[in-house]
Amino acid sequence: MPFFVQLAHHFLPEMILAIGVIVLILIGAWRGERGFGLVDEMAVGILGLAIVAIALSSTPDTSVFDGAYMDDGFSRFMKALTLIGALVSILISVDWLQRAGLEKFEYPVLVLLSTLGMLLLISANNLIALYLGLELMSLALYVLAAFARDDGKASEAGLKYFVLGALSSGMMLYGSTLLYGFSGTISFSGIAAAVATSAPIGVIFGLVFVLAGLAFKMSAAPFHMWTPDVYQGAPTPVTAFFASAAKMAAVAITARIVFAAFPGVTDQWRQIVIFLAIASALLGSFAAIGQENIKRLMAYSSIGHMGFALIGLAAANEAGVRGVAIYLAIYLIMTLGAFAAILAMRVQGKYVENISDLAGLSRTNGVTAFFLAMLMFSLAGVPPLAGFFAKYYVFLAAVDAGLYPLAVIGVLTSAVAAYYYLRVVKVMYFDEPAPAFDRTPFTLRAVLAVSTLALLLFWVYPSPVMNAATAAAKSLF
Q1: Is the peptide bond before 435 cis (omega within 30 degrees of 0)?
Q2: Which residue ranges traverse the bilayer (predicted)?
Q3: Count of CB atoms situated within 10 Å of the CB of 130
Q4: Are 138 and 117 in contact (CB under 8 A)?
Q5: What is the rounded distance in angstroms from the CA atom of residue 281 to the CA atom of residue 78?
Q6: Which of 19, 34, 89, 439 has the most crowded Cβ, counting Cβ within 10 A?
C-alpha cells in the first residue's frame, strides 16, 4: 500500500492533530494574545474532528510503516478516551485561564501536541515508536505543569515533573537497550518471537526497566513520588489533563507491550504488575486519608485507581483487558467530573482547594453538592453507580484467572478508600456552611451534569461501553 494511502487510512486522527497544531501556531503567531479565543475554539474543533475520524473508521486491524504502528480496535478505543479527556480538559480550562490572566494561545497548542504524542504512544508497535510517542507527550506536559510561570508552586511542580520524568525516560531507554541487545530486534513481535521459549536474564531486566518507566507515567506506586506535589502545584485544568488523558495512554501502551512483546513470559511480567497493583492500591487507599487539599486527595485517588486497573491487567487474559478498558472509560468520566467540581470551588473570585471549603455546600449550592456527592460515591465504588461496575469487572477477571488474594486485597483497599470519599460527602452535607461559592460557569455545570448522569445511568444502558471494550480486548489478542 502506498505511503500516503497508509497515512489516510490508518493515521488520520494523528494527521488531523499534527496539521491542526501547525495551523494554530501560525494563527497564534499572527494574532498574538488576541488569538487565544479563536485558537482555543479551533483546538476543541480539531479534537472533535479526530474523535469523529476514529468513530467512523472501519479499517481492518493491521500494522503499518514496517510494523512500527498498530491500527486496531484496542488502539482506537483508547485513542477515543484520550481525545475525550483532552477535549473536556480544554473546555473546563477556559474560565480558569481567563481569571488567572493566562489567555495564551500556547496552552491549547501544548495540549494538542501532548495528545498527539499520546495517540502515537497508544499505537506504538516497536521500541523507537514507543519512545518517540512518550517523549512528545511528556515534553509538552512538563511545560503545561509550569504554565503559570509566575506561580512558585506551578514552577516547582514543572521542575519536579521534568527531573523525575527525565529519570523515568532514562530507565525506559536503558530497558529498551537491554531488550534490543538480547533479542536483536526493536519490534514487539520480534521480541515476542525471540523470547517465545525462554527469556535471557537481560530480557527480564529490560522488561523491569521498561515497566518501571511506564509505571511512572501511570503514577503507580512506588513510582508515584511526583504525583501529589505536581497535582497540587500545577494549574487545576492541567492537573485534570494529567489525571485523565495521560493515564489512558500510559495504561494502553503498558497493556500492548506486555501482550504483544512478552506473551511467552507472562509469569515474569505478571509478578511485576501484581506488585505495582498491590502497592498502588494500598498507598492510594491509606495515604489519602489525612489529606486536607482536595487536589492532593485526587492525586492519591488516581494512584489507587491505577492499582485497581492493574489488577485487571494482571489477569493476563482477554477478560482482564476488557475489564481494564471498562475501568478506564468509567474512571475518565469520574475524573473529569471531579475536576470540574474542583474548578467550581471559587469564593469571591479566588480559587480554594481545601476540603473544608466544601463545608455545608448542600445548603449553599445543593445542585453542585449533589453532583459532587454522586461522583464521590462512584469513585468509592458504591452500587449502582458506574464506579461499582468498573471495579467489579477487574476483580472478576482476577478471580477468573485464579488470583484470589489479589482480588481480596482490591476489595479491602477499595473499602478503605471509601472512607475519604465519604468524608467529602459528610463535609458537604453535615458541617456548618463555609462561605458560598461564586456562580459556576456554564461549561463546568455542563461537564458536572453530563458526567454525573453518565455514572448514574450506566447500569441502565451499559451496552455502548461494554461492546466497545469487548471489541478492543479481542483485537489486542
Answers
A1: no
A2: 12-30, 42-60, 80-98, 105-122, 128-149, 161-182, 188-216, 237-262, 268-290, 297-317, 323-345, 366-390, 402-422, 442-461
A3: 26
A4: yes
A5: 23
A6: 89
Res 188: pLDDT: 92
Q: Which amino acid is at 26?
A: L
Is the overall model pTM greater than 0.70, yes or no?
A: yes
pLDDT at 2 over 70: no
Q: Can you tell me the distance from the alpha carbon of 182 to that of 164, in angstroms, rounded to the nearest whole number?
A: 27
Q: How far is CA 91 from the centre of its chain?
A: 17
Contact 353, 342 (CB under 8 A): yes
For 472, phi then psi, to 5°, come to -65, -45
| Residues 87, 41 contacting (CB under 8 angstroms) | no
DSSP state of 358: G
| Most distant pair of Cα atoms in the chain: their distance | 68
Q: Which three cell numbers stand for residue 240?
A: 485534570
Confidence of residue 393 (pLDDT cuts 50, 70, 90): very high
Q: Which amino acid is at 20?
A: G
94-145 tens-digit pLDDT: 999 998 888 888 999 999 999 999 999 999 999 999 999 999 999 999 999 9
Q: Does the pLDDT value for residue 19 go beyond 80?
A: yes
DSSP for 92-140?
A: TTHHHHHHHT---THHHHHHHHHHHHHHHHHTB-BHHHHHHHHHHHHHH
- Is 244 within 8 Å of 335 (Cβ atoms)? yes
Grid cell in block for residue 420: 475519604
Listed residue (301, 375, 336, 330) closest to 87, CA to CA = 336
In this predicted model, which residue has the larger pLDDT, 151 or 470?
470
* The three-state (H, E, C) secondary structure of 442-462, written as one string: HHHHHHHHHHHHHHHHCCCCC
d(CA 429, CA 360): 6
Q: Band of the pLDDT at 6, cuts 50, 70, 90?
A: low
Q: Which residues contact 41 (CB under 8 A, 6 or more apart)?
A: none
- Which pLDDT score, from 0 to 100, does residue 68 have? 85
